[in-house]
Structures are given as structure tokens and as C-alpha cells.
Batch of 2 targets.
Target 1
Amino acid sequence: MERTLVLVKPDGVRRQLVGEILSRFERRGFRIVGLKLVQPTREIAERHYAVHQGKAFYESLVSFITSGPVVAIALEGPQAIRLVRQMMGALKPEEAAPGTIRGDFTNDIQTNLVHGSDAPETAAAELAIWFGADELLA
Ligand code: ATP
Ligand code: MG
């Protein structure tokens, strides 16, 4: 069993795709163990995207992710980290397969609707950034 962090980014909330995105993960069988609507502060965005600090797209990324509320979702299930990433689709629009969230709903590399943790260590760290221990189901 694994846990992973998913964010529906501000573009997903603005486009009213929260239900669509959540529904895909629910139908795949993942259990929701944490869920909230949050307006990210610059501080939380910088912690979440620390790995990208210094990259050309970093400032633009932080301003995008703080541009409106996001939905933070903690999902649990077998191979949750990998399966959620597969369901999200690739970063490059030309590589995001139809049937994935990005492949079905975006053609842009930045406003790509979802974030998903990419490894067990990042999942644990990111869950701790977005959720207090008392906000996650046992
Ligand atoms: P993947 O790991 O599958 O490539 P990701 O979502 O984890 O996808 P990252 O490389 O970790 O992508 O980048 C984090 C986020 O930064 C992306 O989801 C996207 O919103 C934004 N981003 C990444 N690369 C670019 C870029 N070249 N230009 C603009 N925004 C970018
Ligand atoms: Mg990433």
C-alpha cells in the first residue's frame, strides 16, 4: 500500500475539473485519505517546488501555483505513486497520451491541471507539506 499527494492546480479549479479529476482516481479504486481546498502561500509553493529552484520556469511556476486555490488530495492504494502518475499523463503535451488527464484536458506544459508525487520519499515529504497529521485518515 502506498500514499501519494495529488494537487489539482489552479487551472483545474478555475476550469471546474475538480470533480472530473477526483472521479477518475476514485473509479480507479484509490481511497481518499485527505482532501482540502487551499490557497497556497508563496512559502508553501517554494517548499513544494524547492527541487526546481533556479530553473528558467521557476518564478513563473510559483506565481502560477499561487494564482488561485488548489485542491490537495491524499490518495492511498497499491502502487499509488506510479499509477497516479500514469493517469496524469506526461509533462510534454506531445507525449501526454489521450486517456490521461493531461492528454484529455490540456495542451500546455505549465497549466497542466495536476501534480502527483514521483517517488516514495517525495510523496512523504509533500504529504507533510500540504497536510497536518490530524488531517489524514489512519
Ligand atoms: P513529469 O515529472 O512527468 O515530467 P511533472 O509535473 O512532475 O511532470 P516537473 O518537471 O516536476 O513536471 O515540473 C513541475 C511543474 O513545472 C510541471 O508540472 C509544470 O507545471 C511546470 N513546468 C515544468 N517544465 C516547464 C517548462 N519547461 N515550462 C513551463 N512550466 C514547466
Ligand atoms: Mg515533478
Target 2
Amino acid sequence: MFTKIISLVAIGVVAAGCSTGVRVSGLRCEYLQNPLGIDVGRPRLSWEMESEKRGEMQRAYEVRVGSEPGKGDLWESGKVVSDQSAQVAYGGKELASGQRCYWGVRVWDRDGKVAENSGWWEMGLLKAGDWAGAKWIGTGKLVGQAPMLRREFAVSGAVRRARAYVCGLGYYELRLNGGKVGDHVLDPGYTDYDKRVLYATYDVTDQIREGKNAVGMVLGTGWYDVHTLAVWEFDKAPWRAAPKGIVRLEIEYVDGRKETVVSDGSWNAGVGGIKFDSIYGGEFYDARLEKTGWDEVGFDESEWAGAVVMDGPRGKMVAQEMQPIRVTGEIVPRSVKEVKPGVWMVDMGQNFSGVPKLMVKGKAGVMVKMRCGERVKEDGTLETSQIDVFVKRSGADQVFQEDRYTLKGSGGVEVYVPRFTYHGFQYVEVTGWAGKLGVENFRGEVMHTDVPSAGEFKCSNELVNKIWMASRWAYLSNLMSIPTDCPTREKNGWTGDAQLAAEMGIYNFKPAAVYTKWMNDVEDAQHPGGDLPGIIPTGGWGYGKGIGPAWDSVAFHIPWYLYQYYGDTRILAEHYGVMQRYIEYLSANREDGVINFGLGDWAPYEAQTPATITGTAYFYRDALILAEAAKLLGKNEDARKYRELAGEVRGAFNRKFFDAKSDSYLSGTQTALSCALYQGLVPAGHEKGVFANLVNSIHARKDHLDCGILGTKYVMNVLLDNGRADLAYAIATQTDLPSWGYWIKEKGATTLYESWKDVDSRNHIMFGDIGAWVFKALAGIREDGVGFASVVIRPEVVGDLTSASATYDSIRGKIVSSWRLDGGKIYLDVTVPANMRGTVYLPTSDPTEVKESGGEILMAEGVDSMGNEKGVAVYAVGSGTYHFVAPQR
Ligand code: RAM
């Protein structure tokens, strides 16, 4: 990327007045904070070192793991001289099911000062035998009201600790003594239930009491029992069966006795208010059928039958080691209007994934219908034709994103939140209510996999801020235990969309645990011959030559990003076989050295790029990633073989598609040119020529993109990496077709769309890499090395921008880059966390005039990145906060 690297100088200057204490924070186990239910045998630990001191590094660490806080009886790493602070694998005694492990880490700084901190993790149920006695139970009925299962049990003494291990398919809600257990919704995460089934672990110590207790479970259909029409035939999924659940409660008394309560034939089964639930359709709830007190002691079960013991799913039970889906926020509607007599429209003001919440007071039997969607028609009513096409096409008489609530007439305000469905929507069309409705009657419950935020961004251009914000909403709306394409029409784990959005996700959130889980799903989905489906999980649809490498490459790119951004080599090791089988599959299916099948630059504007170009280019990148992974894993023979294969593919690619005379690639589109550059396929000496052609083709479009989802990611990154961030910025700030700004300005978008012309879904993330680009380009925060051992801060001062700032919570700690222009000067504030190095590229007209924190500057030199750029001062820095001031360029 940068051809001239400046010699490093160690910087150890202590800014006056700063505290110099060293601290350790951010302790994680398998990317999670103090997790319950880990079933990885050797969990990996990470922490962050903190210090205000410049140039601070971790000289050594020591990890102790014990059965009690402060003890090291399970493992002591000893003092390890290393700056490693992530992916440190537990190396002690074999751990048992349910075992609580307390760990502490100690770090030594450069002066030998020590800091420490502690955390814990708890093992899940490691062996199938741990579920002994627990049976899968339900009502045995395929379609009908949501099953409710209950049982009472006695607790004979003071409880020291209690755990609930639970899974309910498709979805469950577990209840104890009248209250919900945990805060998960739409649990468990979606998997191929024939391969793998996720269970959750809850600490229920506080919900259990001495004496009589009641446990209950409600089951939804979810992805396990798709009984309504689905886009890709999930109603025929091989795993499909009637809802069922399994529970194991483990109670430990203060006096050491242990007791377990398990789901079995002794439970009773009934039904209540949920009359219908469907992942696509919605939920119907009749409050008159509610069974008040069913989850409490003393409920009259005389009308309930015995629970039916059922065959369990075929998949193995594994711990759900990722953040669950939660309700993460509540939206107050912007307006509620009567658009036609009796037809009310609720405008949430934000497109998102979740469910509407209804709060009304009225007579028993009144049914309120809520249909959710992303658009309204001219007459003000709901428009769903862009998202319910597959239902309409089939002619099926089926509801879509529709919730119904029938009042019980309690006399008070009745509150209804659908439990076993979710929708993508901004608008809710409400009918069936005779009276007036207002903002006070509705809320929007925002739902998604609850990944912590990692990045914040802000700049002086409001449009760019809005695009960034829309990308975040689109990403989260499409993170529902798997990355999805849209929260409406499909809700599917489209691999191409996920592959393109992964870096955006990593810059903005902490999705490593979700991706780790989803890579298992990818592995589960692969055919023995290497073929991968376009949607994961799949019920069988999407194999063969229809989709192809641009989508399937997710099996390479996501593990590689986890390695690059978090230093995760285990993910490469674990899924090495998937990559290898896929590469062998592509090798066997090339024609004349190239790939002639699959999807290409999907959802283009006008220019069409042959899929053979982008597909073959992914083949090349994938072979290289595999070769690199092989090298890292010590498989040298494989490394050589796949590097050679990559070379062959590169040769074939250029032979077939490259015209050396014009420095162009077949079709000459922005996507073709940027693809060759982005994937590193351009023959040496021709990079500048191809790049010039790309720039010209962008100018020919009046500085607009003319790409689909693949080209959009390539063009923006290639421009940035070749010194034309200004042109990328011009593209990013357009407001006419095709552009992100068009969606924002013309359509009032609050999420990203599926198509430039806005004819499809309004909540796709596949054009979303812009949400990573703003961090890389405008704030200039770029990973440099592996796992942020070092960072490059290289803000691009472009266009009308007068300021930009971002923070990024990397695996090694928080990075800050913030700049502003003022009075002919550029002010740049940079924070590099302890245990990280950085290189700062400061744009200035005069590198000799740079001041830093009012003090002497340590090193400045012009850098030449493409042989045509001057006016950048470059500093090698250690950790610390730096305030640069320099003449504006
Ligand atoms: C659509 C999906 C997805 C895309 C595929 C090819 O059905 O919504 O975004 O990856 O097509």
C-alpha cells in the first residue's frame, strides 16, 4: 500500500501531568465478557492494557486460572515474555461440565510495573450424557397454538447456585415462578438443526426459591417449523418437525447437596394466547385465551394434558457462544395518523428489525391488526409489494409481517409484544380499532444480535454521517444470530452479502463471536465435494453452479478478517478443511483456467460485468488466502501448492480478460477494472494504466459509481489505496442516481437499500462497506499487521470536509483519530492504546512545520505513496495521545 516505509524511532516521551499508571481491562473469554456456557475445551482469553504513558508496551503477561478467585490450581501460564494480549489459549487441566473458572491476568509494562485484573467463565454441558434424563417434550402437534409446558418442583434448602440449560425449537421462552428467564429473544440462534442445535445457559440462582417452584416454557415455530410459505422452501427443510423443548435445571444447595429438574413426561402441556406464529408471517395473539398464572405455583392444570416426549433434533447440542438476540431499544413513533377511515399508519421514523409493541385499553374480543412494512403508497396505506413478492407470486392466502392482538378487556391498558417473529419495517398499518390511536399506543422494539459497538464516527458532512448511521442500522437489522440479507422478504444468510459487509461489521461492532458461530454453520452446509450453498443455513436450496465463488468466498474472507483484525488463527485452523475442499471444487470446475459460473456484480446500476471476471478473481484470492493459512499452520507443502494454483489462476485471468495495449479488462467496466486492482491481479507495470482507466470511467459517469455490490466495495477501496480518496469522497457525497446520498436525500433512507433505484428491499447491507470506508479513509484508522499489533492513522483531508473523527475499540484497546481544519492549520489528535504501535501520516503543506503537543517533533518526512503524492509528514509512534498541529495542505 505504501511503497516507502519510514524508519521507526522509538518514542518514549512522557507528556507532563499525565498519569502513568498501567491498568488491564476488557477481559474476554472467547470474545465474550464473563460468559456462561462455554464448550470449547481450550478457551481463548484476551485483555487490553491501558496506560497514558507514551510508548507503553506489555513486556510480559501471566495468566492464572483457578477454581476459586485468586487461585491458580487449574492453570498457571507462568510469566511469558510477550506482547500477546489476545487469543491466549487456556492450557491447563481438562475442564468439566458446568465448571466455573476464575481467571486473572497480570501484565508487566516496560519498567516492570505490574497491573492485574480478573474475570471468569463457566463451562457448559460438554458431553451428551450431561443431559441425561432430560427429554425433548412438546405437544407433538405440527401446526397450531404455541405449546406451553410446565411443572412444579420443590426446593428443600438454601440455594447456593442454580443453572438452567435450555433449548426450545424453533424458539422458546423459559419462565420461572412467574418471570422470564434471561433477556434473550428469538433464542436459540438459527442453525441447520440436523447438524447442530444451540443451547443457552442461564444463572437462575435468584429466580429459584426455597419451597415450591414452577418452571414453564412456551415454544414458537421459528426456523425449525416453517409452516408458512418461505422464499427458499424452508417449509420442506429436512429438519422440519413440531416444536419441542428441553430443559435441565441444576440446583446446588448451600449444604452441598445437588438436585436436577429436567423436562420429561412428568410435565404438563397446554396452550394459551399465541394462536399462530411464523417467522415470515407474524404472530396472532388472543388475550382471552391467556392462562394467567400458568408459570406460577398453584396453577390449576386440570385441563392440561401430559407433555409428549418427542424425538430430539438430529443435530448435536452445542453451547450458544455468542451474544443473543435482545431487544436493544425502543422507538417512539414519529407520527400516528388515520390515513383512511379506520386505517391508521404508524411511522416509526426509522427502518429497523424487530416488532411493534401495542398498548391499548378496550373491550374483550376487539382484534387489532398490525401489518409491518418499509413503504407507504400514495394514498397513505401500506405498500409491501417489494418485500412480499414470493407470497404474492404463489397466490397463497397468507399473511406477511402481520401481528394480530385480540383484547381480553381487562379494564386496564393491555400491552402486546409479539414473541416468536420479527419484521423489517418503518411503518405499521393498523386496522380493527374503532377509536382514536396516537403515539402513546405504539412503540418499536428494536431486535438484533446484541453485539457491542466498537466504532464511532463523525465528520463535518452531515450526509456522510447519515450514510454511516444508515449502514449501522442496516448491519444490525441483518444480524439475527446469522448475518442476513434483509429482515423482510428473505431473512436468509446470504453469503455474498455477509462477505461484503464483514469489515463494516468489524469496524463498527464486535461481531467475532457471531462470525465464529456462523463459520460452523458454513462448515455444516458444505457438501463433501466442496460445494457451498448461497444461503447458510439452507434447507437444501442453493447448491450447484447458480451462486458461485463471489458468494462462497465468505468461507475464506470471514476467517481471514478474523485473523487480520483479531489475530485469530484458530478460525483458520478449524475451517481449513472447508477452504481446501472448496478450492479443490473450483479447481475441478474451471474451464480454460477460469470460472464460468455463478453470480457476478449483483444489483448493478447500468454497466454489466461478466461474472467470469469477478468469480475467477475470487478464486485467485481464495487460493492465496488458503496458501497463507497453510503457511501459518505450518502446512508448507499446501502453501506451495496453493500459491502455485493462485499463480495459474492469475495467468489465466490475464490471458483471458486483459488487454495490455489498452490497460483494460474485458467489458472495461468500473467493476472489471477495480476488481483486477483490488484482488491484486494486474500484471506488474500495468497498475497505473489500469488505475487511470478506472478513474476515467468514473469521470465518464460524472464521478458516480456504475457498479453493483462487488464493484462498489472494490472501487472505494482501490481509490483510497491509490491516492484518490478525493474521488471516492466525491462518489460518497453524490445525491443523484446512483449513490447512497440519493437514498438518503431523495428517499429519506435510514438504512441502506437493495438496489440503487430503490425498487426492492430497503434494508440490505450488501452496499454497506462504506460504513468501514469512512473509518479507513476519513478518520484514517487502518489495521496494520495482524490483530492490531500496529495501526496506521492516515486521515484523508478531502472535498468539503473540515473535520472528521472516529474511535475504534480494537482487540488491543481504543484507537482515536480526530482532525479539524482551522485558520489554515490542521489539528490532528491521535490516541494509540498501550501495547500498540502506530504510524501517523499527517497531511500538511510543510512537514518541517509540524508541532506535536506543543513540543519538539520527533521525526518528519515526506512520503510518496504512488510516486505522485507529496505533502505528508510521517511519524512512527508508540502508544499515547498526540496532538499534532501543522500548516494545512
Ligand atoms: C437476493 C438476496 C441477496 C443476494 C441474492 C443474490 O435474493 O436478497 O441480497 O445476495 O439475491
